[in-house]
Write a structure and sequence with these properties.
Elements (H helix, E strand, L loop, with lengths): L3 H14 L12 H10 L5 H14 L3 H5 L3 H7 L6 H19 L7 H5 L6 H12 L8 H10 L8 H11 L5 H14 L18 H10 L4
Helix pairs in contact: 1-11, 2-8, 5-6, 9-11
Length: 219
């Protein structure tokens, strides 16, 4: 398992590789960000951005989303996976924003997670990207990279991965680290074909060292 110093070093190396790492979901405000993150569950950011390009022109306020039949909203997001459930949740969370939060997106974990369709990961993204509150959202890339490197244990749950990263990284690094880990996992340490031979972290990576032996490149 990597210690705090080694974990920070890994994030700093990712920052060198992807200095412009950022949230790739296109949005103009925190409400649009919330909708985009809900839509992104089990879906690529690229596909979400294609859908929201027209969606955000048609729907601009919470009221807009629950003033139409759910079947109409379903049709507008049909190309996205789980579109029926997502349409239902988007209408319900929009209604709750109006009734419970005066139409504004709340800023705390508890309040955000009280919204239909919003879990810990979505809440962390909204807090970090939307409100600049330090947070680490653990998606599939963050989880994969953290376990491969040895920052976390293979058996750790998503919650345990988040807790470990929060413990091993200083709070001021959390939000940026989230983006670096995502870019590193999305564009370098890929799920099926990680670029181990050219990875600057191969010397310290638990999984990379195993692959080096199997595939016969220097680790």
């Amino acid at each position: 398992m990597l210690n705090k110093k080694q974990t920070v070093m890994c994030i700093e190396e990712m920052a060198k590789m992807f200095p412009a790492a950022h949230c790739e979901l296109v949005h103009k405000n925190t409400f649009e960000l919330l909708i985009a993150v809900v839509l992104s569950a089990q879906c690529t950011d690229n596909l979400v951005n294609k859908v929201t390009a027209s969606l955000f022109e048609k729907y601009q306020t919470p009221e807009d989303y629950f003033s139409v039949p759910v079947t109409e909203l379903e049709a507008d997001i049909r190309s996205i996976g789980l579109y029926r459930n997502k349409a239902k949740n988007i209408q319900a969370l929009s209604q709750k924003l109006v009734t419970d939060f005066n139409g504004s997106v709340p800023k705390t974990h508890a309040e955000l997670e009280s919204l239909p369709g919003v879990g810990r990961k979505t809440a962390n993204v909204v807090m970090s990207v939307g409100f600049n509150i330090p947070a680490i959202a653990v998606d599939t890339h963050v989880e994969r990279v953290s376990k491969r490197l040895g920052i976390c244990r293979y058996k750790d749950s998503v919650a345990e991965v988040e807790e470990t990263l929060r413990r091993k990284l200083p709070e001021e690094m959390w939000s940026d680290a989230h983006h670096y880990l995502i870019f590193f996992g999305r564009y370098h340490c890929k799920a099926r074909r990680p670029e181990c031979p050219t990875c600057p972290l191969l010397f310290i990576c638990r999984e990379g060292k195993k692959q080096a032996k199997v595939r016969g490149f220097d680790g």
